């Protein structure tokens, strides 16, 4: 637990292991232009929603959804209980600390794939939830704060339901059968990352998370109202301004593979700030480990051959952890490079 940022006394200066050399720090600041993530209202007509999601996905790869069906109570309770968790005494969380990336429920600092000398300014509570055996998963989650298991279970069930509806809308818009992305490709554990970014004494010298693409199928982020997420866009970075009551949605690498590149998994990063702690909850819709994933036949032709190899999700994860998050901060977003390593 001594490695956890939030458990240490307030930092007067940035510890040396978090300071990046100048050539590894991002040179581009978030754009000041009037570019923002599209906002999709899921209460509108189905045809209109399908078009909006596809347009947003193709243009930026990220969008925010409102009127999405996840109750405001579930969202507020999740925010509250996660903040309460990080305020617990260190002894109440010590048994959860682990650097074993195979452990389903744990807390850790920085990222799962640290291979360089520098660390990232983040603590994370990782929770995994199997469907439909949600109750069995909850038994492994922390029992403090008292309401955590109940709140996380309700939030996860509702958020996964939202994710599956977005996937159905995408399938319809792409001309696939509505349930094409159901089954093993979305049937793995739903993984939650409760990300906690404490106030940082020198935000210009470090990052909360490096530029990366998500390796899963679909991500839904419950954002803090404290900005920090930035999205790559046309050689620049968009600073995401969260909308109250909205989820931020982005496509994972597996969705790019299935659509043979029609939809893109877009690079994003997290910046730190000087004065305020920031807590977010990322919900990852994951394939099963042995799911074989490749471009759908519907997107292939003599003029449009496969851009990606067909791999099991386990093989993809193994290579991703080496290639996508190596010691360099200039991370490649080319999935072909990941697959060439096999």
From TrEMBL:
The keyword Metal-binding applies. Residues 187-287 form the Fe2OG dioxygenase domain. InterPro entries: DIOX_N (IPR026992), IPNS-like_FE2OG_OXY (IPR044861), IPNS-like_sf (IPR027443), Oxoglu/Fe-dep_dioxygenase_dom (IPR005123), Plant_2OG-oxidoreductases (IPR050295). GO terms for molecular function: metal ion binding; oxidoreductase activity. Keywords: Iron, Metal-binding, Oxidoreductase. Belongs to the iron/ascorbate-dependent oxidoreductase family. This is Fe2OG dioxygenase domain-containing protein. It comes from Zea mays (Maize). The gene is LOC100282204.
